[in-house]
Amino acid sequence: MYITVIDNARFPDTVEFPMLKAAKYGWQEYPQLTPEQIGENCWRTHIIITLGTELPAEVLAKLPMLKLVIEARAGLVDLETAVARGIAVSRMPEGLGCSHFCKEAVETIDDFMAGKVRHRLV
Question: What residues does the D-isomer specific 2-hydroxyacid dehydrogenase catalytic domain cover (predicted)?
Answer without folding.
Answer: 30-95
